[in-house]
């Protein structure tokens, strides 16, 4: 069993090189993924424990990553809560609100989330029998999940500026807090079930945090991240909050092991600001993987050199890998990390 990832996350041993995995490592940039995807819709894949297992393993077997992440999506919890969910080509995720939303936010309570998402848990059980690297479970941070629920889709400029979400936030804050609290409570149940089924770490994705001002992040996102982290069973936790670098000091005080940096922040600056005990994950710009092999190697080296003597560092991207990424570049990147000394 490969311990590099958990050692870096929990500061157990100083290893000879940092561990590497990539956000969205099982996805459309892989020919083997596209082949399966040609036979099934994305949601079909997410709901089939055998396919979850097969797809999660694809990048582990092809590239030799040091950790696996359950093949799933942060928006499945919205569907489990009663929203209609579709992934449309060219549009991304589309959520359709249930009839009494937003008037009656409380109607969203009362679902059995473990039953609704049992396919994920079954996938985790199957994966545990196959894997020789740690398995990461995940969920969306409540603020990011709420954004998708309120916006419905993220296609237009207004959506991407979160106009509706902010209208709620500023005109009906009690209702917004109520929604965030409900999502948080389901997320605790869901992540604890993932932990019970054997994931060895969890990551929370706050992918839309960058649209919030500092004060709004402190009011509408952080308290719910905290609520979740405080209620999770024992398991190392990673937080990815895109564009929230101004809040890292206060986030590092939460009950977590690692912060996953977006590519705009500087690993060394953040390291200076935070305790050496906090593990840092990141943060290569995913666009670098679209460049030539030379550029990939040069940029990966620069990042590795910066973090050379840091035992609490996990190599990753600053956001999810892009579908256009050439597989050879991912291969080159992993080799670069593995051969670094
Ligand atoms: O990292 C992994 O390999 C695990 C799987 C994973 C997916 N989504 C698979 C996926 C994870 C961890 C996610 C998280 C997720 N989903 C986030 C947070 C991370 C981030 O990127 O900010 C968000 C915001 C979502 C919502 C979502 N799902 C979006 C915006 C999209 C992309 C839409 C598009 O078509 O580009 C998805 C779809 C999705 N999730 C795909 C995959 C592999 C592509 C689906 C396909 O095959 O068509």
Walk me through this protein's architecture:
It contains 16 helices and nine strands. Strand 6 (237-241), helix 13 and strand 7 (258-260) form a beta-alpha-beta unit. The strands form two sheets. Strands 1-4-5-6-7-8-9 form a seven-stranded parallel β-sheet, with helices on both faces. A two-stranded antiparallel ribbon has the order 2-3. It is 47% helix and 13% strand. The model has no long low-confidence stretch (mean pLDDT 96). The chain is of the alpha/beta class and 341 residues long.
Mean pLDDT figure: 96
- CA radius of gyration is 19 Å
Q: How many DSSP H or I helices?
A: 16
The unreliable regions are: none
Shape by Cα distribution: globular
Largest sheet entry: 7 strands, parallel
Structural class: alpha/beta
Biggest sheet, spatial arrangement of strands: 1-4-5-6-7-8-9
Order of helices and strands: HHHHEHEEHHEHHHHEHEHEHEHEH
Bin the strand percentage.
5-15%
The end-to-end span amounts to 22 Å
Which ligands accompany this protein?
Answer: coproporphyrinogen III
**Care to count the β-strands?**
9
Please bin the fraction of helical residues.
40-55%
Produce the secondary structure layout.
Layout: H1 4-10, H2 31-37, H3 42-46, H4 49-63, E1 68-69, H5 76-80, E2 84-88, E3 92-96, H6 113-116, H7 118-130, E4 135-140, H8 142-151, H9 157-160, H10 163-171, H11 173-196, E5 201-206, H12 214-231, E6 237-241, H13 248-251, E7 258-260, H14 267-273, E8 279-284, H15 293-306, E9 313-317, H16 327-339
Parallel strand pairs: 1-4, 4-5, 5-6, 6-7, 7-8, 8-9
Antiparallel strand pairs: 2-3
Helix pairs in contact: 4-7, 8-11, 10-11, 11-12, 15-16
Bound molecules: coproporphyrinogen III.
Coproporphyrinogen III binds at residues 23-28, 37, 42, 69, 71-75, 87, 92-93, 138, 205, 207, 319-320.
